[in-house]
Design goal:
Layout lengths: L7 E4 L2 H12 L4 E4 L4 E6 L3 H11 L8 E3 L3 H7 E2 L2 H10 L4 E7 L15 E5 L4 H10 L3 E2 L14 H8 L5 E4 L10 E4 L5 E4 L5 H8 L4 E2 L25 E2 L10 E4 L14 E3 L6 H16 L6 E3 L8 H12 L3
Helix pairs in contact: 1-5, 2-8
Bound molecules: threonylcarbamoyladenylate (TXA) and magnesium ion (MG).
C-alpha cells in the first residue's frame, strides 16, 4: 500500500475547479459531483492515473470505466456514433445516460480504463461543477462512483470523505447530487441494449429510439456490472497464457514483472516487462497493452511471471486468470 495522501476538501468555486484541473493533469485523483452521484475522477488517457483509481477504490477486478466529456466533439473523438447513438446523445446529453460505443481509431482513452476492450463508455454529465472541471481540464476523465468497492455510491462530499479520505487528493464539494443513482448505460454496437438501468428511465430512451431496448441477459449492478464474457465481452488474448511461470520454454513469449526476468528469458520469442521496478500501479497501466502486443508476436504461449497478490496485484491476477481460462 502506498503512503496515505492528505485529502483536501474545497467548496466548488472557480479556484477549486482550477485546482481540480491541475490535480488531474498531474495524474492525481479528484472526487467531484455529477448530477447522478459523486465520481472519482482521473485523467482517462493516463494509464497510471487510472490504475490509482482502482487502487483507491480497492476494486478486486478491473471493470471498464466511463469516460466523461464536456461536449459532443470530445465524445466523438472517443467513440463512433451510429444513428441510434446520435439520436440518444442529441436527446439526453448532457444527462444521466452513458453510451457504450465502438472506439475510434485514435481513441486516447487508456487501455486499462476500457479493460482492453474495443469499446468505450462515454457520458456527458449534467452538473455545472463536473462540466466546469471537464472543460478546464480539456481531456476525458474516468469517474466511477467515489466510494470504496462494495460500499454505497456517495451523493455528498461527506460520504466521499468518509470512504476515501487519505486515499485521494481532492474532493470538490458541490452539495448533494440531484439524481442520486448512477447513469443508465445503453450499448450502441448494433441493436441498442440496456446494460445498466439508472437515472434515465428506459421508457424515455425507447420513446426516442421508437422501439424497445434489448435487455442484458443478467442486468448488471454498479460494482458487479456484467458477468465476464457477456456484453462487456472481456478482452482475452488468442495466445494461451501460462501463469506463475518461473522459467521460459523455447518459443514462448514472456510477460515479465520485476527486476529479474524469468530463467530462459534470453531465448524467449519476445519479452515485455509490466514493471521492472516491481510497481503494481505501473504494471496495471501496462497490462492490457502488453498482453495485446505479445498476443500479436506470434508465440505459441505467453508465459507470465508471478505477480504479487497485494494491492492492485489482486485485480491484475484476476484479469490474468480470466485471460488464461480455457475458451
Ligand atoms: O452515473 C454514473 O455513471 C457515475 C457517475 C460518477 O458519472 N459513474 C459510474 O461509473 O457509475 P462506474 O465506473 O461505477 O460504472 C461503469 C459501468 C460499469 O458497470 C461498467 O461495466 C460499464 O460502465 N462499462 C464501462 N465501459 C464499458 C464497456 N466498454 N462495455 C460495457 N460496459 C462498460
Ligand atoms: Mg459504484
Amino acid at each position: 500500500m502506498t503512503a496515505p495522501l492528505v485529502t483536501r476538501v474545497a467548496k466548488a468555486d472557480a479556484a477549486a475547479v482550477a485546482d481540480a484541473a491541475r490535480v488531474l493533469a498531474a495524474g492525481g485523483l479528484v472526487a467531484f459531483p455529477t448530477e447522478t452521484v459523486y465520481g472519482l475522477g482521473a485523467d482517462a488517457t493516463d494509464g497510471r492515473a487510472v490504475a490509482r483509481v482502482y487502487q483507491a477504490k480497492g476494486r478486486p477486478a478491473f471493470n471498464p470505466l466511463i469516460a466523461h466529456v464536456a461536449d459532443l466533439n470530445a465524445a466523438q473523438a472517443l467513440g463512433r456514433f451510429d444513428a441510434d447513438a446520435a439520436r440518444l446523445a442529441a436527446a439526453f446529453w448532457p444527462g444521466p445516460l452513458t453510451l457504450v460505443l465502438a472506439k475510434t481509431a485514435h481513441c486516447p482513452v487508456a487501455d486499462l480504463a476500457t479493460a482492453g476492450l474495443d469499446t468505450v463508455a462515454v457520458r456527458m454529465p449534467d452538473h455545472h461543477v463536473a462540466r466546469d472541471i471537464l472543460a478546464a481540464f480539456g481531456k476525458p476523465v474516468v469517474a466511477p462512483s467515489a466510494n470504496r468497492s462494495g460500499h454505497l455510491s456517495p451523493t455528498t462530499a461527506d460520504h466521499v470523505l468518509a470512504d476515501l479520505g487519505g486515499r485521494i487528493d481532492l474532493i470538490v464539494d458541490g452539495g448533494a447530487t440531484p439524481v442520486g443513482i448512477e447513469s443508465t448505460i445503453v450499448g450502441c454496437l448494433g441493436e441498442p441494449i440496456l446494460l445498466r438501468p439508472g437515472g434515465l428511465p428506459r421508457a424515455a430512451i425507447e420513446r426516442t429510439l421508437g422501439r424497445k431496448l434489448a435487455d442484458t441477459p443478467a442486468a448488471g449492478t454498479d460494482d458487479a456490472p456484467l458477468a465476464p464474457g457477456m456484453l462487456a465481452s472481456h478482452y482475452a488474448p488468442r495466445t494461451p497464457l501460462r501463469l506463475n511461470a518461473r522459467r521460459v520454454e523455447a518459443g514462448e513469449a514472456l510477460l515479465a514483472f520485476g527486476p529479474t526476468p524469468a530463467e530462459g528469458a534470453g531465448h524467449a520469442n519476445s519479452v515485455l516487462n509490466l514493471s521492472e521496478r516491481g510497481d503494481l500501479i505501473e504494471a496495471a497501466a501496462n497490462l492490457f497493452s502488453q498482453l495485446r502486443a505479445l498476443d500479436a508476436a506470434g508465440a505459441g504461449v505467453i508465459a507470465v511471471m508471478p505477480i504479487p497478490a497485494n494491492g492492485l496485484g489482486e485485480a491484475i491476477n484476476d484479469r490474468l486468470a480470466r485471460a488464461a481460462a480455457p475458451r
